[in-house]
Amino acid sequence: MKRILVAGGAGFLGSNLCKKLVECGDYVICFDNLYTGRRKNIRCLLKEENFEFIEGDVTKKEDLFKIKDIDQIYNAACPASPYAYQKSPTYTTKVCVIGIINLLELALKNDATILQFSTSEVYGDPCVHPQIETYKGNVNPIGVRSCYDEGKRVAESLMFDYNREFNAKIKIIRIFNTYGINMDINDGRVVSNFIVEALLNKNITIFGDGKQTRSFCYVSDLIDGIICMMNSDANFYGPVNLGNPGEFTMLELAEKVIKLTNSKSKIIYRELPGDDPAKRKPDISLAKEKLNWEPVIDLDEGLKISIEYFKNELVDRKI
Ligand code: UDP
Fold first, then answer.
1. What would the pLDDT profile of 75-128 be if each residue is shown by its tens digit?
2. What is the pTM of this model?
3. Which of 39, 70, 178, 312 has its CA 20 to 30 A from that of 252?
4. All domains of the chain, ordered by start, with CATH?
């Protein structure tokens, strides 16, 4: 039985990962300060013998270094929606940078493999389409998104420097827009916003003209890819893109959500926030080749599952 630390394990992606690892029979230590993570996401896991929750912050070494005998570390600890990571941008950068330094030190101490949750945001507002891992990106270093983009870029560079200087065992994935169960109704990202607005028959707010594109991956597909990456050949560090290459405009997404929820919502438009990428789509050739992975759930199917989930979340909120 492997002992696995999931930093940020009570968040959207972290909790889905913990659930899968617990089902696989590993011993899972979920570490989270509940900044955006939620107890609710891990409630059903707390009764499992091979799961434990530790409340703590990755920027505090003393919280982390109590954890012993770990084989693998997944670092999902960071607010991920633009709304959440821009609330305290300086904290976001600290979580990215100090967090990964502490976790890399912990990995070295335990001789554990560490996998970093990086992001398509390292490509910024990309000039190359679709985005391939060798593309170095187009990031504004002083914009409202840079706390996250640059934080995640520094984390990637620290991963490789700890590998070159200290032989840390590293793996990096670049995650493209992901959605699904355990997303908070107030998450702030587009899929949850649109579904919740549609279910409540409220106006659906598109930022900008709605022609910007994103590629949406259903969460279970992503989690499978992440676990494949962790258990891949030790010499394969990545970074590797994980996402669904299906590309949609935000207007197409809004129309799909309205149709699938049978909603009376109207679409309204608001000013586009600064540095919002115009186009995004992953090239997943590397993941296919090295991990034999590709997503299997298309947008319509994933949205249907998510709509049922958000319906229940809205009922829970009323109780
Ligand atoms: N967006 C939108 N309405 C919303 C939330 C987001 O039109 O209520 C747009 C946002 O401007 C961006 C896209 O949807 O172009 C995806 O935004 P999200 O916050 O989900 O993630 P991002 O890919 O920008 O990090």
1. 999 999 999 999 999 999 999 999 999 999 999 999 999 999 999 999 999 999
2. 0.97
3. 312
4. 3-179+218-242 (3.40.50.720), 190-214+246-281+297-316 (3.90.25.10)
Q: How many CA atoms lie within 13 A of 119 on its CB side?
A: 28
Q: What is the pLDDT of residue 91?
A: 97
> Is residue 148 annotated as part of the catalytic site, yes or no?
yes
Burial class (CB in 10 A: 0-12, 13-18, 19+), 63: middle
Ligand 1 nearest-atom number relative to CA 207: 7
Report the separation in Å between the CA atom of 139 and the middle of ligand 1, taken as the mean of its atom positions: 17
Contacts of 312 (CB under 8 A, 6+ apart): none
**In this structure, which amino acid lies at residue 29?**
I
Residue stretches of the chain with pLDDT short of 50: none
Give residue 225's pLDDT.
98
Q: Whose CA is nearest to atom 12 of ligand 1?
A: 276
At residue 303's C-alpha, the angle toward residues 279 and 195, to 5°, is 85
Nearest to 226 by CA among 12, 26, 20: 20
Token pair 């032989």 is found at 167
The β-bridge relationship of strands 213-215 and 247-249 is antiparallel
- The neighbour count for residue 30, using CB atoms within 10 Å, is 29
Quick check: helix, strand or coil at residue 92?
helix
Pairing between strand 240-242 and 169-175? Answer: parallel
How far are the Cα atoms of 49, 205, 215, 309 from residue 254, in angstroms, in the given order? 42, 9, 14, 18
Q: Among residues 74, 85, 123, 148, which one is catalytic?
A: 148
180 SS3 class: coil
148 within 8 A of 140, measured Cβ to Cβ: no
User: Tokens standing for 282?
Assistant: 């992953």
CA distance 266 to 302: 22
Beta-bridged to residue 119, according to DSSP, are 175
242 to each of 52, 68, 73, 89, 122, how far by Cα in Å?
28, 30, 18, 25, 13
In the chain the first and final C-alpha atoms are separated, in Å, by 39
